[in-house]
Amino acid sequence: MTETVGSPAGAAGEPEAGARKGIRVERVYTTEGVHPYDEVKWEHRDVVMTNWRDGSVNFEQRGVEFPEFWSLNSVNIVTSKYFRGAVGSEERESSLKQLIDRVVKTYVAAGVENGYFASDADAEIFEHELTWMLLHQVFSFNSPVWFNVGTASKQQVSACFILSVDDTMESILDWYKEEGLIFKGGSGAGLNLSRIRSSKELLSSGGTASGPVSFMRGADASAGTIKSGGATRRAAKMVVLDVDHPDVEEFIETKSREEHKIRALRDAGFDMDLGGADSNSVQYQNANNSIRVSDEFMRAVESDGDFGLRARTDGSVIETVRSRDIFRKMAKAAWECADPGIQYDDTINDWHTSPETGRIAASNPCSEYMHLDNSSCNLASLNLMKFLNEDLTFDAETFSKAVEFVITAMDISICFADFPTEAIGDTTRKFRQLGIGYANLGALLMATGHAYDSDGGRALAASITSLMTGTAYKRSAEMAGVVGTYEGYARNAEGHQRVMRKHAAANDLVRTYHTNDNAVHKLATKVWQDCLEIGGENGWRNAQASVLAPTGTIGLMMDCDTTGIEPDLALVKFKKLVGGGSMQIVNQTVPRALQALGYQEEQVEAIVEYIAEHGHVIDAPGLRPEHYEVFDCAMGQRSIAPMGHVRMMAAVQPFISGAISKTVNMPEEASVEDVEELYFEGWRLGLKALAIYRDNCKVGQPLSAGKGDKGEQDKAVEKQIEYRPVRKRLPKKRPSQTVSFTVGGAEGYLHAGSYPDDGLGEIFVKLGKQGSTLAGVMDAFSMSISVGLQYGIPLEFYVSKFQNLRFEPAGMTDDPDIRMASSVLDYLFRRLALDYLPYEKRAQLGIFTTEERDAQVNGEPAPAQGGDDVDLDTLRSTVDYQKSEPQDEDKRNAGSSTELLELQLGKAADAPLCMTCGTKMRPSGSCYLCEGCGATSGCS
Asked: In what residue span(s) does the Ribonucleotide reductase class II vitamin B12-dependent N-terminal domain sit (predicted)?
């Protein structure tokens, strides 16, 4: 608990002379006379991180010291990501104590130096409280703090940056340079290109301007070359364009056109997978794109009115368009490739605390930080599950006190922080933007018996968020009375006070439903009243206080089940074991949720056992159907509807200074109209930004397995028995065909024999001279594939494994349907797919005839397919099967929670593979997170 002493500040940014002022600190977690490190049991562990796919060692450090209650995963990630010093050297950190002390002592020393504390005793208590909270995973600073604070490196504490660019070549080149420096440091940046004149306007020299999209090519190439943090993951960047820019249609379609190119190149045999050898030839893939729409535009869409596109030089209308046509193009492009997202300009600037200084024009790459150009934001997130009591009530009082500690530390960091450019440093020091947030909301809601998509769940989330931001701004006002307001406050005092009143008014509109959310909301109401009163007297220390970030790596550091505002990914998760190996476990929030719903211990055990076996709650013994919704997750048998995610974002947005990093996932069968509805509802519900992702809309993502009927899916998910088929031999006389082919100059023949019902049953490949090693290998390969086909292995399985395989000979072919092949096997199996697989299965594999590709380009329906689909179940029904004991395939084949979920669903998830350790990543806000090593695809 903290309080301030001393008289209020005088001039903005300058404390008055007189008695020593500062914050008085009271203990919350710690005990006087006992250091936090002495309260826990420590143990030494060996950290050896391997690539899950090939077993190679990515990182090794033995004998590191951590509390015994820290999980293997959190120990691995902190050791490999955050310990400083060369591995194997004496300077290398080897204990969590060293890491926490390095950061906390730097913060406290800066706080003392800058007059934050009333006495040395208060500084010591503050140090112990921060140490205890970090030690017990109550909160975490963002990654740059752990990377840089207390080291010989520059003391960069911010993860999120916003740049600016003007309509001059000098400014554009500065943009390239500044963005590159930020990427090199491992952070992300965003900017708005709308000041650059359009390709429809003239230059002073008399020529025509290039337009912003042309300059995006250079920035995209730079980001693809530098990558992020000098590592293998792509740079994180955001590019924004206003909807009234004359080049808006070209901007909208940049990435969707490239997606069409990707599909054409893939079909021609190029390796276009994420990170594939040929994928770097595609443009604009290193940025997230967003359109900044105005209320005027959205009202025009609502009324089907026209809208004017304006010149950048004088603001005159140079073209009038139908607003719904632009809106439809936005939705269609997002439906095709997930870009562009949408940002609601008037809503953003209506909640802007510093409007007199300038408008908010852009955001960071993940869309949660929105403030002035050339500024930055440092983040920290609290672990909400740490405030859940044994009786399943939320400890609002302790949560509020924790927020006070964290926001104070975050503000102190700006006193000593370094920044990548002078302009960013100047703006950040003048406005002191902070981004406190939280993780584990999805786990908290489930544990307290709330469905994520429910009025009760939204009420609790809104109340907690309101309390967090209210407490942060209250503490900011108290700090203003000690060390002064932010420098830009005097000019923006009226605007800042107006936004504070808007937050408090929104809090008054929250409707509560249960004892839990009512208690939190009651405290939030009091905090906002105090905030307005203290701020009216002192002003505020920070122009911005809160955001909801993805909390990727730091979420794993805190052992969180869910990140940011996200719901649970699934009810079962993948857990690494200290002695090596892994196991599948049911999320620990599930039994707590069942207890909250009133189930007895025996019922809880039975339901948990059922979930462990099936991966879902449908038909779980004793579980009432009305409680199914509590266990709905982001993926799985019962996934949360897209609008459910939007409604949750809308519930908490009025209590966030910035915005929310989150991508709303949509099913593959969603329509363009569904995207339009989400974008329109996002505006109507008061969101600041919204991004969507439709399953399988990108080529560079894994494809779904065949859908099949519900019965087949249930069999794939449950895996109750394992079958051992016997061979179904071909009859003596069977239909066959022979195809001659040429790949990269190498000539050969493919002979394919079929069952009478048209199912492929054998292949023979002649390649190379008789008696040569190559000919012998191809004969053996052909026999192996033929036997596999006769044992019931589906042809599409072979096709998925061998297409895009790369080795010589490779290159041009003489086949009009497959013009390029990356190897002989790539050609052979794509040819077999075209000859023997139905259109639906080939579409999932991305294999089409020339006629079919032409139809896609022209927007025509797929050409009629000859022949009937091979019914593999009917084929297998003619084969004798022998039952055996169930085998634990999930444990052997899964490398992450996402892959485990794929095995249960019988369907691939849209997520990239981690470039570091090879496991499949999972969604985290608008980014992806690797559970194995903590790597992210964004700026967290």
From this structure: 47-137
Instruction: Pull the structure tokens for residue 924.
Output: 């985290």
Q: Can 364 be counted among the known catalytic residues?
A: yes
DSSP assignment letter at 275: T
Which amino acid is located at 206 in the chain?
G
Among the listed residues 446, 411, 560, the one whose alpha carbon sits nearest the alpha carbon of residue 940: 560
- Say what the pLDDT of residue 221 is: 74
Q: Where are the beta strands (DSSP E) in 571-651?
A: 572-576, 582-586
Better-scored residue on pLDDT, 95 or 927: 95
d(CA 162, CA 377): 9
Q: Which amino acid is at 587?
A: N
Residue 729 lies in a domain: yes
DSSP structure class, residue 633 = B
Residue 481 pLDDT: 96
Q: What residue has token string 């060369």? A: 86
Range of the domain at 855: 725-864
Q: Tell me, what amino acid is at 880?
A: D
Given 160, 366, 914, 930, which residue is catalytic? 366
Tell me, yes or no, if 366 is annotated catalytic: yes
- Of the residues 178, 336, 368, 852, which is catalytic? 368
Whole-number pLDDT of residue 1: 56
pLDDT digits (tens, 9 = 90+) for 777-831: 888 999 999 988 888 888 988 998 888 888 888 888 888 889 888 899 999 999 9
Q: Which of 347, 456, 370 is nearest to 685 (CA)?
A: 347
Residue 807 maps to a domain: yes
Nearest-CA neighbor of 477 among 415, 536, 413?
Answer: 536
| Residue 389 DSSP one-character state | -
Q: Is residue 546 part of a domain?
A: no
Provide the residue type at 686 as one letter: G
Q: How confident is the model at residue 235 (pLDDT cuts 50, 70, 90)?
A: low
What per-residue string of b and e applies to 764-780 under the rule 16 or more CB within 10 Å gives b? bbbbbeeeeeebeebee
Angle at 510 between CA 507 and CA 516, to 5 degrees: 105
Q: Tell me if 652 sits within 8 A of 564, measured CB to CB.
A: no
**Total domains present in the chain:** 1
Q: Is the peptide bond before 756 cis (omega within 30 degrees of 0)?
A: no
Query: Which pLDDT score, from 0 to 100, does residue 864 have?
Result: 53
Q: With beta carbons less than 8 A apart as the criterion, state whether 341 and 690 touch.
A: yes
Whether 473 contacts 531, CB under 8 Å: yes
Evaluate the omega torsion of the peptide bond into residue 340 and state whether it is cis, within 30 degrees of 0. Answer: yes
Is-catalytic flag, 129?
no
pLDDT tens column, 534-566: 999 999 999 999 999 998 889 989 999 999 999
Percentage of residues in the chain with pLDDT exceeding 70?
85
Average the pLDDT over 861-874 and give the result: 47
**Cα atoms in the Cβ-side hemisphere of radius 13 Å centred on 307:** 25
**Residue 715 is assigned to a structural domain of this protein:** no
